[in-house]
Amino acid sequence: MKAKKTLAGLALVGAIALTATGCAGGGSTAGGGGDDVITVGFAQTGSESGWRSANTESMKEAFSEENGFNLIFNAADNKPEAQIAAVRSFINQGVDAIVLAPIVTDGWDDVLQEAKDANIPVILEDRTVSASEDLYASWIGLDFEKEGETAGTWVAENFGSTPTNLVILEGTTGSSAATDRATGFAKAIEGTDITVLDSQTGNFTRAEGKTVMEGFLQKYGSQINLLFAHNDDMGLGALDAIKAAGLKPGTDIKIVTIDAVKDGMTALAEGEFNYIVECNPLLGEKTAEVVKKVVAGESVDKQYIVEDQAFDQEQAKAALPDRKY
Ligand code: GZL
After folding, report:
1. How far is CA 46 from CA 73, 77, 177, 238, 264, in A?
2. Beta carbon of 139 within 6 Å of any ligand 1 atom
3. Domain 144-279 has CATH 3.40.50.2300
4. Which CATH class, in words, describes the domain spanning 10-141+281-307?
5. Whole-number pLDDT of residue 34
6. Of all atoms in ligand 1, which is nearest to the CA of residue 281?
7. 20: CA distance to ligand 1 center in Å?
8. Would you say residue 4 has pLDDT above 70?
9. Which atom of ligand 1 is nearest to the CA of 204?
10. Are the C-beta atoms of 283 and 318 separated by less than 8 Å?
11. What integer pLDDT is reported at residue 222 of this predicted model?
12. Domain limits of the chain?
């Protein structure tokens, strides 16, 4: 394990301590911890959805002091420029490792190169980046394209043989989750009788999901047979708009979403949603395991993909009592 310094010491004497202890770049330790404490800067997207809250909780639980970490947490309020600034701040603080849940895929090359030059490993969790693979040690994530394809296959199998009008609430523009889900979904409904009336981003939030759905209903009204929302939260926001328009969600407008957080699974069990593809947010344990290996100089895989499942209304009723998030 790299020679460590006490972050508290650095706070007291500033740059001198950094020079005095010959920081090998990224070699500082947590404040007050012993030699083996790993200081990790975690750049989270923000708090845009129920999924994000569960993911943050999972990460904070795994990167605890008891587990040998000092976690410096930053939530970027879904603003990519704020998230890049957070990563740069972690580099300046000389953390031992950076964990990043990138809001968007592009724009990471420069700051990831700065982390590499500072000898600070970056581990991606959740979404991924378009930057070169040599700029991050590993990615712990999910197969978003498969999630989109699973949702699209359910739509194709249940509605693809009769003329069906669909609207789509997309996730955050430029995020790998939204881009890849859209790709997988489009592939699955190719050649069916499904018509996409409209597709707009609701930025993974309930509020924006409701607003965009209100617009869809004003424009297309009862022509809409089906809604595909890239996450539960936008689908839950759309429920309010559908009910306000005097329509019955799950019946007049069928709804398929992705995530399977508790509120989404409850809507599914109660018949307001029709199908949910899970996207597991509990990535903390695996991410912490990978960080420890990377900091110890052990080899790790370039990516670890967490398995997902899918639920219909009956399966949601059965699964709800045991769901961890
Ligand atoms: C997916 C994650 C997405 C979720 C949304 O791994 O990045 O972001 O589907 C969340 O709920 O906001």
Report:
1. 11, 4, 15, 21, 20
2. no
3. yes
4. alpha beta
5. 59
6. 6
7. 43
8. no
9. 12
10. no
11. 93
12. 10-141+281-307, 144-279
Return all residues near 126 (Cβ < 8 A) that are at least 6 apart: 45, 55, 101, 102, 140, 141, 142, 177, 281, 283
H or E element in which residue 165 lies: strand 164-170
From the CA of 231, how far away is ligand 1's center (Å)?
7
How much distance in Å is there from the Cα of 297 to the middle of ligand 1? 30
DSSP 210-250: HHHHHHHHHHHGGG--EEEESSHHHHHHHHHHHHHTT--BT
Q: How confident is the model at residue 151 (pLDDT cuts 50, 70, 90)?
A: very high
Tokens of 307: 């398995």
pTM: 0.89
pLDDT in tens, 275-325: 999 999 999 999 999 999 999 999 999 999 998 899 999 999 999 999 888
Confidence band, pLDDT 50/70/90 cuts, at residue 12: very low
- The pLDDT score that the predictor gives to residue 11 is 42
Fold agreement between 10-141+281-307 and 144-279: yes
